[in-house]
Amino acid sequence: MLVDSHCHLDFPDLAQRLPDVLARMQDNAVGCAVCIAVNLEDFPGVLALAEAHANLYATVGVHPEYADAEEPDVARLIDLAGHPKVIAIGETGLDYYWHKEQPEWQRVRFRNHIRAALATGKPLVVHMRDSAADTLRILEEEGADAVGGVMHCFTETWDVARQALDLGFLISFSGIVTFKNALAIKEVAQKTPLERILIETDSPYLAPVPYRGKPNEPAYVRHVAEEVARLRDISFDAVATATTSNFFKLFTHASRPISP
Questions:
Q1: Has residue 260 got a pLDDT over 50?
Q2: What's the CATH code of the domain at 108?
């Protein structure tokens, strides 16, 4: 079984063809997927998907790109995270690519998410773009290692990955790892301990080869696993087994699907 640890099934590209998307998940042995929240305004739709499907889970959080979204305080995040299908806090973190002025409001928001995660005991889903030093510093300052989480769609160097691993976080690889020129990410996929790896699609974005440039979907996480296996010179089954086990060890509020 495979798990897509990060997707956006509520986004129009996927929501309008959800039955087919879920069927292809099943056909490709993708047993679970996590529907990631990016703001509070759309969180009810994310949660509704998780409530309607036993093999879907949700997170709650506000993405750092969303400057004009409803601002989440710690109490609000804790309240929304109380739902049993919400298994993590996020997507949260810092994004200095879109916000090159490196605004303080992003760092305040990030700290609120970490504090909510610590209060609920649910791990973090961390977005990090052009912000590695500040992201790692804030995680350390806030004691995020006590709850852990995942550095989603990892695109940094091995040195940054090592620091995140030292903080107790897992590293998640997306379709980018299949791109020919993604040499730094391929190196990280080779060096990260297998028991600390997750895989994801971040769909509908970042479709892996051979679907690059087309809408992504959870079924395609298989291609991420295949590339990680190739890079590490191990079997596909070994990657599938390890990443699925890693997922359920980290996201303790998720349950393995019951085989028919």
A1: no
A2: 3.20.20.140
Q: Which residue, 167, 147, 3, is CA-closest to 77?
A: 147
pLDDT tens for residues 101-133?
Answer: 889 999 999 999 999 999 999 999 999 999 999
What does pLDDT average to over the chain?
97
Range of the domain at 139: 2-250
- Asked whether residue 151 is domain-assigned, the answer is yes
Q: With respect to residue 84, please indicate whether it lies within any of the assigned structural domains.
A: yes
220: which 2 tokens?
Answer: 């395609």
Q: What's the whole-model pTM score?
A: 0.97
**Residue 217 covered by a domain:** yes
The pLDDT score that the predictor gives to residue 100 is: 85
- Quote the Cα angle for 175-176-178, to 5°: 75
Query: What residues are paired with 92 via a beta bridge?
Result: 126
Q: What is the mean pLDDT of residues 22-42?
A: 98
> Count of CB atoms within 10 A of residue 9's CB?
27
Number of domains in the chain: 1
The Cα–Cα gap between 129 and 250 comes to 23
Which residues pair with residue 4 across a beta bridge?
33
| Burial class of residue 230 (count of CB atoms within 10 Å of its CB; 0-12, 13-18, 19+) | middle
